[in-house]
Amino acid sequence: AKDEVTWSEELFEVFGLEFGPAAPTFSQLEELVTAPTYKALDEGVARAVKAGIPYEVELEIPRDDGTTRWLWSRGEPVTDPEGRRTGLWGAAQDITDRKANEAERSQLEAQLARAQRLESVGRLAGSVAHDFNNMLTVILGHAERILAQLAPEDPLRASVEEIRQSADRSAALTRQLLAFARNQPVSPAVIDLNETVAGVMTLLTRLIGEDVDLVWKPGEDLASVRIDPSQVGQILTNLCVNARDAIADVGRILVETNNVSFDEEHCAQHPEYLPGHYVQLVVTDNGAGMDAATLSHLFEPFFTTKESGQGTGLGLATIYGIVNQNNGFATASSVPGIGTTLSIYLPRHGASPDPSTEEPVVEANARGGGDGATILLVEDEPAILALAAKSLTGQGYIVLPASTPDDAVRLAKDHPGSIDLLLTDVIMPAMNGRALAEEVRSIRPHLKVLYMSGYTSDVITGHGGPQGDASFIAKPFRLKDLALKVREVLGAESSDTP
Q1: Whole-number Å distance between alpha carbons of 453 and 183
Q2: Global pTM value
């Protein structure tokens, strides 16, 4: 009969049942395994009985103690001397460990594929932003020069102003792409995250509106972190605006900070985490929430759950880039209809916040003041080379333009007078700006260096952190800002003499 079943003692243990003379009947198995796996078993047994076809199934067993076991089972029909099928016999094996390993491997493979996808998109975003920033530098520079020559009442002035403003807005978009690509120019400082967040909360309260209760819960004895304070505001604003948009009517957003640590064992079980000591910034809302499919794409650029025209899809991608640029990581959890929690983890810094690490304010007149200093200008984009050379010459500098690193090295060797400053692009064919600076300094050791680029990277900074001690101006820049930066670098005491 179908319900006459005999089990070994090991099978009772796998199912979490007390060993006894009578095994559960085949019908009772439906209560002991999950519905999909019982269906597969029932269909396999039916084929074996009717057609004599052996079956193999994997049974998922949710036990009373809260654990889940997996059992591989194979069966084939038993026949009497006349060939009639009189029963089934088979073997079973506990495959719980194998299934756990398969699930872990599948999870790791999915996370690796996601990381590789994000890294690939990040490289593309950085490359596009670099080239676009070159073009924006030319647009902004020429717009600035035209405006300087137009009278206030000139009818063309409004059009040129619109060109300049559009270029500024485009530059803001490229900064978001650069943040995602982890190449955003930054000025990191050791800060107290509680103080920095508290400074942003007043602005956020006005931004979020009265219908949403914004709650700030600072952690006690919080460790310091090293990050550009403006990036903290950028992270918090993006997270809180997204949280507000997820709340249909009234709701609550909780912002909190904590000291947290993760060991190797925890990270082995949660591969999205990194071992170490961190300061955690958490934003939790009780909005619409997200399903698992949405969460898997959350940090990808241009992915958005908002309606068309309501967002660029760069907000969380920007956060992803900022956090990675600062050697941290981010996690997200969400339940549809319940809400979402986004957590940012920044490495703790051993030192106390030091106001002296902040960038000095430069007070300088952007017009004139070159004092005849000689600048070796290296830029492979002809339009930027011509624009910067013309602008700096107008400031009273002597400019030696070079469109390639080889030309720059030749000028450094052959120029009969002194050269005070090397102003060089970072990303160029044949030789990057850092390598060029080292070669030119081997010829002129006291030379000061100012880098310019559409993005920063280790090619500038080596292992000295996101920006190290390198003087740098980010493209796109205004000609006024270039003049100020050049004067700042030339006026600084040289610390680069070997």
Answers
A1: 10
A2: 0.42
